């Protein structure tokens, strides 16, 4: 097999970071977006940012949404992911501008779809979401937000109003050079099927979910 050789017969260096490769209008039921496609050279994942309006550079309303096939596509009530995605898209349209970065490779907090399904099976047997991951020998949260920061840098964003209940997302962006001017709650009313999952996220993963106090009647 022929090597990819550069000047003087040396190998060309492997590309790193994120590269913008596509930009297309995307009309949705929520409003008009530009779908900006990226290739993550470090992991090989294809990523997309949905951009609405004139985003500017500072205090941009942003959601970093981790891929969740079961919630986003199938409407699973095991989590609140699908509702959060819809709420974030509505929010940036109502704001007049903003970005939803859809992070592929984040399925199951980074453990992958099949591992997530195995963890869900353990949760059905009584383990919580943290215990289930650990029982499988997997990390509780394996997500990395470097690619998200790279996308925001490429879009010219310096500071954000971050739609998230997860303090670790804020910390990760700051580490990667994106200022977080404000953390905007993205609270979805719980249901009987996800209340235990949400309480675990609050009690064991430090998610800020004060609205759960009002639904003590749910099992």
Automatic annotation (TrEMBL):
Reaction(s) this enzyme catalyzes, per UniProt: GTP + 4 H2O = 2,5-diamino-6-hydroxy-4-(5-phosphoribosylamino)-pyrimidine + formate + 2 phosphate + 3 H(+)
Domain GTP cyclohydrolase II residue range list: 19-185
Domain of life, source organism: Bacteria
GO molecular function: GTP cyclohydrolase II activity
Cofactor note: Binds 1 zinc ion per subunit.
Role summary: Catalyzes the conversion of GTP to 2,5-diamino-6-ribosylamino-4(3H)-pyrimidinone 5'-phosphate (DARP), formate and pyrophosphate.
Full protein name: GTP cyclohydrolase-2
InterPro entries for this protein: GTP_cyclohydro_II (IPR032677), RibA (IPR000926), RibA-like_sf (IPR036144)
Residues the record lists as binding GTP: 63-67, 84, 107-109, 129, 164, 169
Pathway(s): Cofactor biosynthesis; riboflavin biosynthesis; 5-amino-6-(D-ribitylamino)uracil from GTP: step 1/4
Keywords, sorted A to Z: GTP-binding, Hydrolase, Metal-binding, Nucleotide-binding, Riboflavin biosynthesis, Zinc
Protein family according to the UniProt entry: Belongs to the GTP cyclohydrolase II family.
Cofactor(s) annotated in UniProt: Zn(2+)
Residues holding Zn(2+): 68, 79, 81
Entry-linked CDD domains: GTP_cyclohydro2
Listed Pfam families: GTP_cyclohydro2
EC number from the UniProt entry: 3.5.4.25
Active site: 141 (proton acceptor), 143 (nucleophile)
């Amino acid at each position: 097999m022929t090597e990819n050789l550069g000047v003087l017969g040396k190998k060309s260096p492997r590309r790193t970071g994120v590269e913008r490769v596509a930009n297309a209008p995307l009309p949705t039921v929520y409003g008009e977006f530009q779908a900006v496609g990226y290739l993550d050279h470090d992991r090989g994942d294809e990523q997309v940012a949905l951009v609405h309006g004139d985003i500017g550079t500072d205090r941009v309303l942003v959601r970093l949404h981790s891929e969740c096939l079961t919630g986003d596509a199938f409407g699973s009530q095991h989590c609140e992911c699908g509702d959060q995605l819809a709420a974030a898209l509505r929010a940036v349209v109502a704001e007049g501008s903003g970005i939803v970065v859809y992070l592929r490779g984040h399925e199951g907090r980074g453990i992958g779809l099949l591992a997530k399904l195995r963890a869900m099976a353990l949760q059905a047997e009584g383990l919580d979401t943290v215990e289930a991951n650990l029982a499988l020998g997997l990390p509780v949260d394996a997500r990395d937000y470097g690619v998200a920061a790279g996308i925001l840098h490429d879009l010219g964003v310096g500071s954000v109003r971050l739609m998230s209940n997860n303090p670790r997302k804020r910390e990760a962006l700051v580490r990667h050079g994106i200022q977080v001017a404000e953390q905007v709650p993205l609270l979805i009313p719980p249901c009987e099927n996800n209340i235990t999952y949400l309480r675990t996220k609050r009690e064991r993963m430090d998610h800020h979910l004060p609205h759960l106090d009002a639904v003590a009647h749910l099992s």
